[in-house]
Amino acid sequence: MIVLDINKDVIGTDKEVHAEDGQWVSRRMLLKGDNMGFSFHETIIKANTKTHIHYQNHLEAVYCVAGNGKIEDLKTGKVHEIYDGVMYALNEHDDHNLYGGTEDMRLICVFNPPIKGTENHDENGVYPLED
C-alpha cells in the first residue's frame, strides 16, 4: 500500500517539478517506480499563462478540481473552457495549448505510460519516453 501526504511527502521534494518558465508546477505522487502502470500528479497551472504541450509518448487524463482556464486543440482550433468539474483526455497525443485563467488552475492528472518523475517539457512540449 502506498499512502502519501502531498504537504509532507511531495511539496518541497524532488517529486515537485517546476516549469523552467514558472508557468506550472507538477506534484508527482505516483511514478513509474511505484509499478502501478500509470503515474498520478497534481498540477498547478498559473493564472494568465500559456503552455504548449504535445505528449507524443504519453496519454493523459486531466480533471480540474479548482480554478479555471482553457485548452486549445491545435489540430482543430477548438477551444474548451476548463473549470472545477471538467475532465479532458488527450487520447490521441493531442497537440494543444493550455491557458491559465483568471486564477491558478488545480488539475489531477494520470499518465500512461507512467513517467519516471524528473521529466520536463522539451522545446516541442513533449515529455521524453524514459526507460
Task: Tell me the fraction of residues in β-strands, as a range.
Answer: 35-45%
Which spans have pLDDT < 50 for at least 5 consecutive residues? none
How would the global form be characterised? globular
Helical percent range? under 10%
What does this structure look like?
This protein is mainly beta. The chain contains 1 helix and 10 strands, in the order αββββββββββ. It has a 6-stranded antiparallel sheet, with no helix packed on it. It has a 4-stranded antiparallel sheet with strand order 4-9-6-7, with no helix packed on it. A hairpin with an 8-residue loop joins strand 2 and strand 3 (39-45). The radius of gyration is 14 Å and the shape is globular. The mean pLDDT is 91.
Secondary structure layout:
Blueprint: H1 6-10, E1 16-18, E2 24-30, E3 39-45, E4 50-53, E5 59-66, E6 68-73, E7 79-83, E8 87-90, E9 96-100, E10 105-112
Antiparallel strand pairs: 1-2, 2-3, 3-10, 4-9, 5-8, 5-10, 6-7, 6-9
Briefly summarize what is shown.
Helix content is 4%, strand content 44%. With 131 residues, it is mainly beta.
Comma- or semicolon-separated keywords:
mainly beta, globular
